[in-house]
Design goal:
single chain, mainly alpha, 2 domains, 66% helix, flat
Length: 122
């Protein structure tokens, strides 16, 4: 993404650097977030503890699928691929699925019941 940012700046594309620069920042943050996974590629010292893997529960799968399905269909309505009479149904379903999934995640987080989330950076 850095090369795309350099090219867009050098060719004076208007507005594109405003999109690509935050994307580069997001990729940098994600690489820092997963440093414990990248670390063995750059350092000879192995990890002292295994990297935990978070497994999605059924409610998470259903919530994410319903949200993604509703979002894709809502954009299908905006592009006239799907009848516009279904727009409200897809919008409401997506919002409810997103709120339910987020609410369940926050409830598990606050009660300390999230499986597999261990701070490995201590």
């Amino acid at each position: 993404i850095l090369n795309i940012l350099v090219i867009t700046i050098s060719l004076s594309f208007t507005g594109t650097p405003l999109v690509v620069a935050p994307m580069l920042l997001a990729v940098t943050f994600l690489c820092c977030w997963d440093w414990h996974r990248f670390r063995p590629m750059f350092l000879e010292a192995p990890l002292t503890r295994p990297v935990p893997r978070h497994r999605l529960e059924n409610w998470e799968r259903v919530g994410f699928f319903a949200f993604a399905f509703s979002l894709m269909n809502f954009f299908g309505v905006t592009r006239s691929f799907i009848p516009s009479s279904l727009a409200a149904a897809f919008l409401v379903t997506g919002i409810l699925a997103g709120i339910a999934t987020l609410g369940r995640f926050l409830w598990l987080w606050r009660t300390g019941r999230l499986p597999g989330l261990i701070n490995t950076l201590d």
